[in-house]
Amino acid sequence: MTISFNRRHLLAGAGAATLTTMVGANAPALASTLPPAPKPEDWAKAENIRNVCLSPNGRKIAYLQEKGGVKFIIEHDLDIKQSQAFNIGVAKVSSLSWIDDSHLSVATFATGKMERFAGGRQTFTIVSVYNIATPAINTLFADLPGFESFVTGNVNVINYKGKAQITASSYKTGFEDDAHYLYRFNLDGSGASVMDRGTVGTRSWIMTPQGDLVARTIYSDKSKTYSIEYNTGGWTEIYSLKCDIDRPYVAGLGRDGKALVVFMPTDDGEGMYYEMAPDGKLSAPLVKSAVNETPTFDPITFRLNGIRTYDGWSHYNYFAPVDQDIVKKTEKAMEGYRFVIIERGINPLQVILYSEGSDDAGTYYYIDFRTGEVVTIGYAYPDIPIEWITSKSEITYKAADGTQIEAYLTLPPNREAKNLPLVVHPHGGPQARDGVGFDSEVQAYASRGYAVLQPNFRGSEGYGIKFTEAGYGQWGRKMQTDLSDGVRYLASQSIIDLKRVCISGASYGGYAALAGATLDTGVYNCAVDVSGISDIREFLDSKRPADAMYVPASYRYLQRFLGDEKTLDEISPIKHVDKCNIPVLIVHGKDDTVVEFSQSANMAKALKAAGKDVTFQPYEHEDHWQTNEAARTDMYKTIIAFIEKHNPPA
Q: Which domain holds residue 550?
């Protein structure tokens, strides 16, 4: 049976049925004339549906919806065509998945400080099991003496002696026990059993679907030694390496269920994936290049089943013909759209798909390739008219020193691409990258008439180790001018107006916005900093360990990007407020545990003391990832109003 999709065709009423629930999952509007542009708050809303998952039997769908800041888990039974909603309040949900056909695992996170863990407030993950039949809820570790209800590392679903269980690890909160414990939990909350008592340095466990432990990894921050131990009836070390920042890691089980899939550092700095036998011997390389190729694992067997390639979007190549046939069928069904298979049942022909495209801000589908059954589960942004959705295009340009920079350019819909106003929107990290995927903030700027430039500046990942290393010591230097070189390139192509440019970013992107106002001046009309670093030395000092003999890799990672500590003031925006001659908007959430709130408060104070045009907008109960919908909505409105005032779109 041939299955194909056309967004406008679906909206006209043909094709798949659409799930509707008490919260609503309506389709975006399709108008014969151009509808009004969406408001900033329309783009700031949480996705209408997200965290979509499929039960093992392939006949139940669950997903998350949010309304007025309140989250609902929606469970839909495809056989009886009925839905039910579970109100889970204002919890910050990070993941949702099925354990078996009647239980869901829900991971949330909370901000707090615990005596056991050094430093200030941190973000902790909490995992709960929901029984959709009763309904009953139990939280992992909540009833275990000596533990708080947070988990560390991965959570796995196992079939232990014919019964579904969930595994998770954590530390006791007291100082008398340094062990890292791995437990398996009964789904009804009736009990938990210790699977392993690791050391404080135990980082992860690899297991079979039946819960048999195969291997574990250990890293000592003090000796800087990474080791892999194999379960031979007891733990036997099969590999050890002295390393610091760039470490090996075990990704999962190999194809035979005994070997391990490992990532190993290599002499060229790129690293490589191998299968490691129980005696520690390595196979031939699994991929051509580990830069953009990573192994994938079967969700049922836990074994290596293919390779994922990322070039701004994910592409999959599976070893088994039946799995690869699903990809080919999906490519045919989703022709003209980007897609990813996000879930499948025990029968791999039952899948959940996510799609995007030039007229698609994100749609979730259920497909049963055996029967041809297709269900449109819902739309991520149903309030956005498709006439106002625009696409990113990949461009390249040369930096001043000749370095090739790849970037993504988003052009405003319904407007000629000539002499446009521009928003430069650098990513965080900084060792990260932007891709071609839908970005609501970028779309919000574009819908107001702006072109948006997202450069993958030197230091970004995904372009090889040499490109990443080119960013070492260039924080606030060439990493910054890579952005303004992109501005000048677009102006040379007559795409943008060089006199109408602003910069807006979050995290490292927020730092880049402040640097654009104080270090690389004369390029931007205004700057928007969201949760950015302003004082590099203070930030580094806040991460500095109390024990000089114990320097964690996270600290040394920062050091190599920042360069010589004697020159940190040279790249700290707070030390150069006198050079700022443009309006600056600073936004920061008080629950941020990545970049201290004081970084923004102090920068705003320094700018104000220097007589500069600065607006400071703090938010209660907002974190580094902007998960609070009310705060995010106000933030989008504030940012866009600020940009439109100081860098008008027309």
A: 392-646
